[in-house]
Amino acid sequence: MEQSEGFEAKSKRQLVCMKKKSLYGLKQSPRQWYKKFNSFMVEHGYDNTTSDHCVFIKRFHDGNFIILLLYMDNMLNVGHDAKKIQSLKGELSKYFIMKNLKLEKKLFT
């Protein structure tokens, strides 16, 4: 291993930096991202479906539910209660850097 370009210290060539996080583009990066996202969802009361581990569901006492579909680093939220979806988006944005693409459409009336 060599010192990173731009961070070389000529007097300390034998020293290198130890990375504390998985880096984008490494083999283990997708797995680490999923583990982090999954732990967040479980902490907030969501369950994975057994048929697809990237589908998260939370059922509420009032009969409503939210389904979150995860594909790579993209998400789609589905549910009847817009306030609960906004609440989920707020919690997610506190923990992750997010961009809302505003592709929301009302599918059913």
Structure description:
The chain is an alpha+beta fold. The chain is built from 2 helices and 4 strands, in the order H-E-E-E-E-H.
Provide the β-strand percentage band: 15-25%
Order of helices and strands: HEEEEH
Overall SS class: alpha+beta
Shape: elongated
Major sheet details: 4 strands, antiparallel
How far is it from the N-terminal to the C-terminal residue, by CA? Answer: 59 Å
Task: Give the gist of this structure.
With 109 residues, the protein is α+β, with helices and mostly antiparallel strands. It has helices at 29-43, 82-95, and strands at residues 47-48, 55-59, 65-71, 74-79. The relative contact order is 0.09.
Task: Give the topology, please.
Elements: H1 29-43, E1 47-48, E2 55-59, E3 65-71, E4 74-79, H2 82-95
Antiparallel strand pairs: 1-2, 2-3, 3-4
Annotation keywords:
18% strand; elongated; 109 residues; 2 helices; alpha+beta
